[in-house]
Amino acid sequence: MSVCTTEEQKAQIIAAVDLLAAQATELALNIHANPELSFEEVNSAAALIAPLRAAGFEIEEELGGLPTAFRATYDSGKPGPVIALLAEYDALVNLGHACGHNLIGTASVTAALALKQVSQFLTGRLEVIGTPAEEEGGGKIILSDKGIFDDADAVMMFHPRDKTMVVRGGLACVDAVFKFYGKAAHAASAPQNGISALDAVIHTFNGINALRQLFTDDVRVHGIITDGGSATNIVPAYSEAKFLMRADTVKGLAAVKQKVFDAARGAALMTGARLEIEEGLTYAERNNNLTLAGFFQQNLEAIGVEVVPPPLKGGIGSSDIGNVSQITAAIHPYIRIGDVLPHTPEFAVAAGSEAGLQGMLQAAKALAMTALDLCQDDTKLRAVREEFSNWQSKQ
């Protein structure tokens, strides 16, 4: 009996993704047309689970106690690595899928379905992990803290973008809500009796703006007023603002957070308002596994996708994949879907376009082929794990 070469096995994976293209397109467009916000992705999660269940994957719902998180597992029954493909599927407020999560989740599911069709070549265990609330709430952080990724030898996903890049950094970030409690008064006849919670918010913005010249280049602080009062002739008794703080590392972020919090505390002291701070989960910086990214690039290039180097500086956001990358070897490559940037109306259009769907299928092929590399080649798997172990020993 003849044995298939790795190239022949990958050719079968490519053919399997091509056969799944119509199903994947329908799935991605369905999620795109019905956007759901963080932790509310009931229909999106169910849509991603359905083809995996039909293909014989073992399904765990409400993973880690999160109603819209899931894990779909195929165990080959042969010794080998645990490879996790991550699915995202939450949308943005007022913008829908302007970050392309409909493509991300569908690409991972399609890659897993293609691998299942060539299961005779697999070793170890293949998982698709549905990770809700990347935009607001840090689903991967919660799952990481619950130990969901502890057994994974490699974790992979892709993200649509305006460039195809296999390595790109990610800033550490944390959000906070500042709630100021003042005292209402008639703004014309008795303003002296009031304490303006809105003034406390405005002073907070001013204090943060005064700090900007002192921040290092990696730092970003951006905020919005979420409650500024109810009427112009009433001194606002309550006002609220939400800020997002970013820095290169969690350690650097801690110093930035302290300064921003002190600005809010100073504003409360100046105005006499009482301050409450609600701090969100901390998104860690991204630790890209360069070895794994290199294998992914080779597979992209094998299907004719050109990869470009990332910019030397700037243009970096944040994602909770950073927390996963602190636990195990992980990659978060980008694939071009047009001349558009995430979190814009134009990107939402691109996420449902032919170019977006093509990028999704390219990602599915490269994800599946890279998973096969780790299943078939102990040398490659060992190199990935050694890089992560070396990084971990330096932390």
TrEMBL record:
SUPFAM superfamilies: Bacterial exopeptidase dimerisation domain, Zn-dependent exopeptidases. PANTHER family: PEPTIDASE M20 (PTHR30575), XAA-ARG DIPEPTIDASE (PTHR30575:SF0). It comes from Rahnella laticis. InterPro entries: Amidohydrolase, Bact_exopeptidase_dim_dom, Peptidase_M20, Peptidase_M20/M20A_hydrolases, Peptidase_M20_dimer, Xaa-Arg_dipeptidase. Gene3D superfamilies: 3.30.70.360, Zn peptidases (3.40.630.10). Belongs to the peptidase M20A family. Keywords: Hydrolase. It comes from the Bacteria. Residues 177-264 form the Peptidase M20 dimerisation domain. The lineage of its organism: Bacteria, Pseudomonadati, Pseudomonadota, Gammaproteobacteria, Enterobacterales. This is Peptidase M20 domain-containing protein 2. Pfam families: M20_dimer, Peptidase_M20.
